[in-house]
Amino acid sequence: MKLKYILSIGAAAALALSACTPVDQYTPDPNKRTKEGALTGAAIGAGLGILTGEGSKDKRDRALVGAAVGGLIGGVVGNNLDKQAAELQARLDSRIRVINEGNQLRVVLPEGILFPVDSAAVQPSIQGDLYEVAAHLNRYPNSRIEVVGHTDNTGSAAYNQDLSQRRAQAVAAILRNAGVSPSRIVAYGRGEDQPVASNLTPQGRQLNRRVEILIIPTR
Questions:
Q1: 98: burial class by Cβ within 10 Å (0-12, 13-18, 19+)?
Q2: Which end of the chain, C or N, has fewer beta carbons within 10 A?
Q3: CATH code of residue 170
Q4: pTM of the predicted model, to two decimals?
Q5: What does the pLDDT read at residue 219?
Q6: Residues 29 and 42 grouped into a single domain
Q7: CA-wise closest residue to 193 among 165, 156, 157, 169
Q8: Residue 140: in which H helix or E strand, if any?
Q9: Are residues 63 and 121 in the same domain?
Q10: What's the domain range around 211?
Q11: Same domain, residue pair 99 and 123
């Protein structure tokens, strides 16, 4: 079996895993991504084997090998993120959500525990959690980090953009001060452009005011 074929199975399995579950869907199963990765990888590996085989026997052999290799690789990819997500969630305030999206982890920090109203000064009470995130990032150095600020639509779009940018930069600064390499981190604001709930209700606006830390594996 050619190495190129084996690698193509792994790449395809990892890519497809990112689409297995919607962004904000929770599950009580801590190994969900491991299982999804193994099943997805096996299916893709078998499919690639059939597509690349040259005869019925060759197609069958490749399908069997592809399913085994794809399942193994997909399971490893899913397991790594399952493990990291569970480990990080256990160390953080229960109001902070760690979402495994298959190709990255999304840490959602509500504005209410991060900042005073209309401020970009991080509350002292939450800084310990940000140091826990930083310690996690240093234990798993093969990732890049995007810190993204979000607001609701109260006030002008220009003001919200500026506030979201300053808040993202404030969180990123704490991660850097806690020892995370600055070269791994970018920070930017999205203002009111990416709501996760309706801005027509107080509850929706509260959900939209947040900072997200995206932990994106680099290998």
A1: buried
A2: C
A3: 3.30.1330.60
A4: 0.69
A5: 78
A6: yes
A7: 157
A8: none
A9: no
A10: 80-217
A11: yes
